[in-house]
Amino acid sequence: MKDEIRSIASHFRVCGEPINVTPVTRGHINDTYIVTVEKNGQAAKYVLQRINHAVFKDPPAMMANILRVTEHIHDKVQQADPALARRQLTVVRTSDGEGCYEDSEGNFWRVYNFIEDAVTHDTLESTDLAYEAARMFGWFQRMLIDLSGPALNETIVGFHNTPRRLEVFQELLKTDALNRAGNAKGEIDFLIENSHICSVLTDLADTGEIPERIAHNDTKINNVMLDRTTNKGVCVIDLDTVMPGLSVYDFGDMVRTATCSAAEDEPDLSKVAVDLKLFEALVRGYLAEAGRFLTSAEKSHLVFAGKLITFEQFMRFLTDYLAGDVYYKTSREGHNLDRSRTQMKLVKSIVEQEEVMSELVARAFGGDST
Ligand code: GN1
Ligand code: MG
């Protein structure tokens, strides 16, 4: 395997010969490796990934997006802070100058620079980190507000189309081919009882009340890198789903992943709840950047988006459980069911605290959230 990875790496414009390969187990979709290369005694690291083309059907179109986005951000940061520009995510092209390499088996591979002295966090406990991570996602949206040219490619069609995801779930439930629904009765009931929330944001987007922007669409808190020493934001990573979307979805996924210090698959549900202090820091960090462009309709749906995206993720995990664990990588039996339970508990916690959360948003806006 390692030899295969080394030979893949040699198709890219990396500075040297691959000497070491380390797999990275994080991430539910793509396969990731850290590759060290060496030339004249000088070592350099890169991130090599095999793109999951069952999920991303058109890897070259996805890489075209990522090239546009990373180059745009790099050029803007370069003017203000060249040292920070060097620490932005950068695509290392193939020897032929492409964004990804297709091997003889039809797998697509890509290489990024390795960002030194920066770390990611799967969960957060500190309000300072929550502020900074959310600020970075707000910053990312702001950086892309003036991206010119045609719309970005839709890398996964209907990615946050929650009503469509509900339909998929309902279809699977009808047949329950693997006979798993019986293990998830409480979750299925909760899903059906609350399914009316699925169409709220898509309806507002359809009428234009909430604008379509360029969104990251996967603002899991471990997709932002912070400086190892100062904790200051360095860059945003995992740009696979950067495409037209709603800014509030991005905020919603931050609520899902950064306001509770329990892991996404924590089996002890007593540990799963929204921490209001983390939430407040998240709002303030996000608004420090996004407050400059958000409309009042967007502002007034921030808390709702937290609930909806957590609900959507609950439904996605439950769907994958019923489908036989075909989408997310799993490492134990019932893993997707556990994940869905954690998300369900988080939705309940948001529902319980919705009013206070809205007040905190209003306060962060200086008393006006509408
Ligand atoms: C997937 O694998 P990762 O961490 O990049 C998924 C996200 C989910 C997340 C849940 C393309 O992200 O949408 O929110 O798992 N990415 C895709 O942890 O489906
Ligand atoms: Mg991802």
Description:
The protein contains 12 helices and 11 strands. The protein has 370 residues and is an alpha+beta fold. Strands 1, 2, 3, 4, 5 and 6 form a 6-stranded antiparallel sheet that branches. The N and C termini lie far apart (55 Å). The mean pLDDT is 96. Residues 29, 218, 238, 240 line the site of magnesium ion (MG).
Radius of gyration: 21 Å
| Unreliably modeled segments | none
Global outline: globular
Structural class: alpha+beta
The end-to-end distance, rounded to whole angstroms, is: 55 Å
Q: What is the total tally of β strands?
A: 11
| Main beta-sheet strand count, sense and barrel state | 6 strands, antiparallel
DSSP helix count? 12
Q: What attributes does this structure have?
A:
12 helices, alpha+beta, binds 2-acetamido-2-deoxy-1-O-phosphono-alpha-D-glucopyranose, binds magnesium ion, 3-stranded antiparallel beta sheet, 370 residues
Lay out the secondary structure:
Elements: H1 2-9, E1 17-24, E2 31-39, E3 42-51, H2 59-80, H3 82-85, E4 91-92, E5 101-102, E6 108-113, E7 118-119, H4 127-143, H5 162-175, H6 185-193, H7 200-206, E8 213-215, E9 224-227, E10 233-236, E11 243-245, H8 247-258, H9 276-290, H10 296-299, H11 302-323, H12 335-364
The chain binds 2-acetamido-2-deoxy-1-O-phosphono-alpha-D-glucopyranose and magnesium ion (MG).
2-acetamido-2-deoxy-1-O-phosphono-alpha-D-glucopyranose binds at residues 27-29, 55, 218, 220, 238, 240-241, 264, 313.
